[in-house]
Amino acid sequence: MSSGVPMTNEKRLTRDIIFKTLVNALETLDYVHAFYEGGAAAFNRVDEWSDIDLYLVVDDEKVNEAFLAVEKALRSLSPIKQKFDVPQTGWPSVFQAFYRLEDASEYLIIDLCVLKLTSPDTFLEPEIHGNVVFYFNKHGKIRPPQFDREALVKKMRERLGRLQARFDMFNNFIQKEINRGHLLEATDLYHSFILAALVEVLRIKHNPIHYNFKMEYVHYELPSETIKKLEHLYFVKDRRICKKNTTKQLSGSVGQCRRSIKRI
């Protein structure tokens, strides 16, 4: 009799099998210089729902070949059920695609970033990206850049000013839609203008290194009491929008953050 819990497929691929297969396929390629894992592994938070965040550093002109080599290795393990290309990553020398394998857990998605060797962005600063796991780093060529704390402080000051100005200009859009009886629009604006800003400000207050990580890792990096308050604010249970209380908390947090930045 079924217990209601999905059965585990014993043939499903594990993280270790995927890593070993990729290392064997990639390490011998002359144009591949480093292969490492970030994400949950870099913060020692891997669980049964974690995906795989991989970084591959290659010669500048070999990006397409690198993707083909990875896909060939993955197909040796399982059919690729779906590939999702990211057309623009925000970093000119970084190229990204996601893979879902037929014979792997639905949660074990592979998030692959291929970096040009000359890319200034390597996602290796331990202060920001944790302690990545290197599977190989030929001749120690790839090294973490020096963390620029002064640049971070400058960015946060500018961001706080931008958040305050954005809030001052647009926060009444929520009440406007409530007045019109447009509750879907009001709720969407409440989340995108008020709560998103509040989360960013709280991150600056409690863990400024990840001020621009949006909701990622909030359960690890914000105090549990703050998380409970955010849950209350996010999950509006009726037609009442919690704008008043949220606005008060946002304004207070901005002031605290400005004081906190001075101590970084």
Architecture overview:
This protein is α+β, with helices and mostly antiparallel strands and 264 residues long. The protein has nine helices and six strands, in the order αββαβββαβαααααα. The chain has helices spanning 15-26, 63-75, 126-129, 149-170, 172-180, 183-206, 218-221, 224-234, 243-261; strands at 32-37, 52-58, 80-86, 94-101, 110-116, 133-137. It has a six-stranded mixed beta sheet, with helices on one face. Helix 4 (149-170) runs antiparallel to helix 6 (183-206) and helix 6 (183-206) runs parallel beside helix 9 (243-261).
Please sum up the structure shown.
The protein has 264 residues and is α+β, with helices and mostly antiparallel strands.
Assign the CATH class of the largest domain.
Answer: Alpha Beta
- Work out the helix count: 9
CATH H-level superfamily title of the largest domain = Beta Polymerase, domain 2
N-to-C series of helices and strands: HEEHEEEHEHHHHHH
Characterize the biggest β-sheet. Answer: 6 strands, mixed
- Assembly type of the chains comes to single chain
What separation lies between the terminal Cα atoms? 59 Å
